[in-house]
């Protein structure tokens, strides 16, 4: 199977996955307690006004009519919105409509929050991979020694530590007591740094990047700790499995340097499951950064999702969850494509 056919097949599968997520989210809106009309109206509003608002929102229609209007609206508006986005034209709400609380387009609010969440998820992944893979290699190549026991203890501590508790502890120790990092917020994002670079302000762009790094360090470490422990254990087990195979003994018998055997042959053959977990966890981090964003007041999609759930702003909840599901689909397609580059024996079939 060619790369083009593979991508088309996976994209079609992704459409069905997103459709399933949309259906589940619509069902949650129906069974969840609370009336969206209460978000827009005061408690003492006249009954006729409430009925009019419910009718304007389409909540007086049968459920199958509401569902069909929602699905058909997205099916029509999504290609149009993508076309406008690709051509740089304004407009297009992808069928999500307006937020009930702010009366602004859901797409605009999600688009403003998504870069912060992507920055946090990608940075947490980088922290995890940079620490975990070397630690896993050291642990596997020094089995039943002090480095191996230390890596195992670190992994158990990382997997067992709740993110919200770790974030609070890091804030208390490193931010409040030692004043090494800020406690919360995001002073500047990568889009802002890119804008400074485009404007030719290299010094300001460098300072902005350092400021961004200063603000994102604690949230990224908090979010990536569990991920680091997981990758460490996976790398160690994969390395131990590969080190016992015949080709490793044959490579050593040929006189190849031990570093070449470990990193070019053994580690490369271990990367397939690592890439799988990294890809799946990256999608999980995009959707699972909610608690970390809340602890550090990080202005990402998690904050939007929590506030929208608390205020029963269902258009915003639907938009946030749809973006998260699309992120999962895209990451899985990228991971499956990377398999063939890491191991050419893996085809697109």
TrEMBL record:
Keywords: Cell membrane, Membrane, Transmembrane, Transmembrane helix, Transport. The lineage of its organism: Archaea, Methanobacteriati, Methanobacteriota, Stenosarchaea group, Halobacteria. One of its GO terms (cellular component) is plasma membrane. Its main location: membrane. The chain crosses the membrane at residues 12-32, 120-141, 153-176, 212-231, 271-296, 316-335. It is found in: Cell membrane. The keyword Chaperone does not apply. This is ABC transporter permease. InterPro entries: BPD_transp_1_N, MetI-like, MetI-like_sf. Pfam families: BPD_transp_1, BPD_transp_1_N. It is a multi-pass membrane protein. Belongs to the binding-protein-dependent transport system permease family.
């Amino acid at each position: 199977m060619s790369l083009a056919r593979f991508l088309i097949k996976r994209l079609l599968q992704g459409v069905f996955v997103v459709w399933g997520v949309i259906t589940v989210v619509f069902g949650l809106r129906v069974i969840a307690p609370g009336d969206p009309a209460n978000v827009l109206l005061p408690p003492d509003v006249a009954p006729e006004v409430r009925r009019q608002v419910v009718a304007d929102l389409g909540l007086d229609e049968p459920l199958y009519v509401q569902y069909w209007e929602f699905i058909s609206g997205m099916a029509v508006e999504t290609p149009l919105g993508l076309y406008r986005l690709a051509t740089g034209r304004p407009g297009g709400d992808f069928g999500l409509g307006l937020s009930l609380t702010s009366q602004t387009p859901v797409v605009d609010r999600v688009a403003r929050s998504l870069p912060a969440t992507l920055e946090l998820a990608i940075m947490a992944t980088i922290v995890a991979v940079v620490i975990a893979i070397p630690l896993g290699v050291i642990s596997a190549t020094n089995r039943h020694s002090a480095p191996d026991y230390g890596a195992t203890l670190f992994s158990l501590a990382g997997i067992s530590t709740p993110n919200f508790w770790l974030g609070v502890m890091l804030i208390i120790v490193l931010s409040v007591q030692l004043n090494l990092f800020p406690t919360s917020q995001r002073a500047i994002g990568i889009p802002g740094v890119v804008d400074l670079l485009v404007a030719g302000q290299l010094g300001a762009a460098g300072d902005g990047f350092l400021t961004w790094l200063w603000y994102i360090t604690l949230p990224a470490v908090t979010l990536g700790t569990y991920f680091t422990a997981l990758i460490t254990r996976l790398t160690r087990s994969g390395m131990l499995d590969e080190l016992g195979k015949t080709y490793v003994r044959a490579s050593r018998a040929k006189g190849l340097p031990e570093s070449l055997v470990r990193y070019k042959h053994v580690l490369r053959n271990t990367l397939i499951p690592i890439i799988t977990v990294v890809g799946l966890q990256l999608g999980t981090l995009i959707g699972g950064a909610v608690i970390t964003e809340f602890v550090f007041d990080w202005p990402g999609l998690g904050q939007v999702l929590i506030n929208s759930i608390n205020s029963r702003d269902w258009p915003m909840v639907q938009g946030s969850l749809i973006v998260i599901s699309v992120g999962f689909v895209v990451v899985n397609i990228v991971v499956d494509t990377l398999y063939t580059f890491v191991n050419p024996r893996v085809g697109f079939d």
